[in-house]
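User: I'm writing a short report section on ligand binding and want a predicted complex to refer to. Could you take this sequence and pyridoxal-5'-phosphate and write out the structure as tokens? A short remark afterwards would be nice.
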Amino acid sequence: MRVPLVDLKAQYPAVGREIEDAIRLVRDRSDFVSGLDIGLFEKEFAKYLECAEVVGVASGTAALHLALLACGIGPGDEVITAAHTFAATGEAIVHVGARPVFVDIDESTYLIDSNLVEAAITPRTKAIVPVHLYGQPCDMDSLFSIASRHGLMLVEDAAQAHGATFKGRRCGTLGHVGCFSFYPGKNLGAWGDAGAVSTNDRVLAAKVRQLRDHGRSGKYQHDLVGFGERLDTIQAAVLRVKLRRLDEWNHRRRERADNYRTLLGGLLTLPAEREHAESVYHLFVVRTRARDALLEHLRGRGISAGVHYPVPLHRQPAFANAGFADVELPTTERVVDEILSLPMYPELTKEQLDFVVETIISFLQGFPTSTTRRSHE
Ligand SMILES: *Cc1c(COP(=O)(O)O)cnc(C)c1O
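Assistant: Sure. The structure tokens for the complex follow:
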């Protein structure tokens, strides 16, 4: 048996035909750019999120970049975020000319530690970018009150958290603006690159709309120096079909997470679930001091596991060379050596999951528990 980390092809029996029909309609209309499906997808995703506006853009990276620009963040500003994230979070901050200020993560959730945020605020701080990593919502009550107290913008990186909720409200609507990626492997994935910005602020939405399309206010009227970062009509058509299944797919991910939890409890450190925060398990990340050996053991038996992410941003050459080499984030640095992402996708069968669990158990039998539990226990 082979078990991939993510299996995009396993989705096609359920939606492949419907998506092909939707794409054929785009071909028949030939409205490939700024076409009918874009506005429809934006309305449908806004309704799903329960927010006023969604603006489709070319990728999650573009969503972050344009959202920060629309918030007025620029040269000389500081933006607080986590180093334990995908590179795009830090790139967007640097591309608007601001400086990322990396704050350490919480030992149990691996998300930005809201207790450390206030100490990182300076007169130059303009925004906080919490990343709902692995599909798990950040501590948005604390972050929202810190942002309000200090007059900061709260820009959510919800690229891994489509449908996740905090106190019943969806990620991407909990701050001032939310940023989504529809990279194919995400919980809601396109058939290529795509992204979106969500907000209740109509002025901000209009600004992102203008920025994504060359700063236009008319066909040949350019009020801003903008970008070519529009969402493709074909991708919007794909996303409209898949959005209708998102809740069902997230539900299945949560079922598989429960299965892992039941079968692996007490053997490895499992993802923490905080009260009021419902994760959509973009990734199911366990933790063990024997991470590298376990990874090799799984791979040798046809199971693709991964590490998200092995090198935090302040240790990446791109950022270390930009003056972050001296930054120390002890929890982040400890966690990245011990985390392991197990196969997780809605179509993962119980048989596949059982095989993953059996393979982990056979590996652990060769190790004393002290070497497999997390180091701080
Ligand atoms: C995927 C991802 C992005 C970037 O999205 P793209 O669509 O690949 O540009 C940004 N932040 C996080 C946390 C992501 O996982």
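A remark for your report: The CA atoms of residues 34 and 66 lie 18 Å apart. Residues 59-61, 85-86, 88-89, 131, 157, 159-160, 181, 183, 193, 195 surround pyridoxal-5'-phosphate (CB under 6 Å).
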